[in-house]
Design goal:
Helices cover 6% and strands 63% of the residues. By secondary structure, it is mostly beta strands. The chain has one domain: Porin (Beta Barrel), CATH 2.40.160. An 11-stranded mixed barrel has the order 1-2-3-4-5-6-7-8-9-10-11.
C-alpha cells in the first residue's frame, strides 16, 4: 500500500495543471558539506550552496546559502535549525532579498525496499516588501534504491510539497508548490556522492498564471 501511495503522489505532481501555466526549462546545481552521523558527539553541522538558472542557463535566477546545526536524537532521527540567505534575481535586474530561519525533523532508515528519508521543515521567511513574516511548511520524502555495488550506483526519487501557512504581501495561504525528482546517484570517492536527474517543479501563483519548470538538477554531497 505504501508503494501505491508514493507512486500516486509522483503521478499527481507530474500531471499538467488544468489552469493557464507558464513553462520554462531550467538548470540548478547544489553543493553540500556536512558532518556524517554516528560520531561520538550528537551535534552535527551542515552547509549548503545552491544556484538556480532560468531560461536554460542564460539567466541567473536565485542563490541559496544555508548553514545549519543538528542534534542526533537516535541513530536514525535528528533535529535541525538553520538560516537561509536566498536572494532572487528577476529579469527586471532588481534583487529580491529574502532571509529565513528554519527548523526540521529528519528521519533516515530502511523502508519500501530502499533507503528511506523523511523530512518535515518549518520556515520563517523575511521577504522584501512582504509586510510580515511568511510561514511555510515543507514535507519531503526520498527513496534511494541501490542497483549496483560498484561505484554505489543507485536510483533516486523524491517528492517535496510546500504549503504557505499565512498571507503576506507576497504569499497567499495554501498550496505553494510541489517538486518531484528522479535521477541516479554514484559515489565520488569515500566522502562524496553525485546525483543528477530531472526535477518537475509545479508552482501555484498568488496572481497570474501558475508556473511549471522542467529542471536539470545536479547535486554534489560531501561528508566529513
Amino acid at each position: 500500500m505504501a508503494r501505491l501511495v508514493f507512486a500516486a503522489v509522483l503521478l499527481w505532481a507530474a500531471a499538467p495543471s488544468s489552469a493557464q501555466t507558464t513553462v520554462d526549462g531550467r538548470a540548478w546545481w547544489n553543493v553540500t558539506f556536512q558532518e556524517q552521523p554516528g560520531t561520538e558527539r550528537p551535534w552535527r553541522w551542515y552547509f549548503e550552496l545552491q544556484g538556480r538558472h532560468r531560461d536554460g542557463v542564460t539567466g541567473f535566477d536565485q542563490l541559496l546559502v544555508r548553514p545549519a546545526v543538528g542534534y542526533d536524537l537516535t541513530p536514525r532521527s535528528s533535529l535541525w535549525a538553520g538560516y537561509g540567505y536566498t536572494p532572487g534575481f528577476p529579469p527586471t535586474g532588481d534583487v529580491l532579498t529574502e532571509n529565513r530561519m528554519w527548523q526540521q525533523y529528519l528521519w533516515a532508515g530502511p523502508g519500501l525496499g530502499s533507503a528511506l528519508q523523511w523530512r518535515s521543515r518549518l520556515e520563517q521567511r523575511w521577504i522584501e516588501a512582504a509586510g510580515s513574516v511568511a510561514w511555510r511548511f515543507r514535507q519531503f520524502v526520498r527513496l534511494t534504491k541501490p542497483v549496483s555495488t560498484r561505484g554505489g550506483l543507485a536510483v533516486v526519487v523524491w517528492d517535496e510539497m510546500f504549503v504557505h501557512l499565512n498571507d503576506t504581501g507576497r504569499t497567499a495561504q495554501g498550496f505553494d508548490q510541489n517538486r518531484v525528482f528522479g535521477g541516479i546517484g554514484v559515489s565520488a570517492g569515500r566522502h562524496a556522492r553525485v546525483e543528477v536527474g530531472y526535477l518537475n517543479q509545479a508552482i501555484h501563483a498568488a496572481s497570474g498564471p501558475n508556473r511549471r519548470n522542467h529542471v536539470l538538477l545536479a547535486f554534489v554531497n560531501t561528508t566529513y
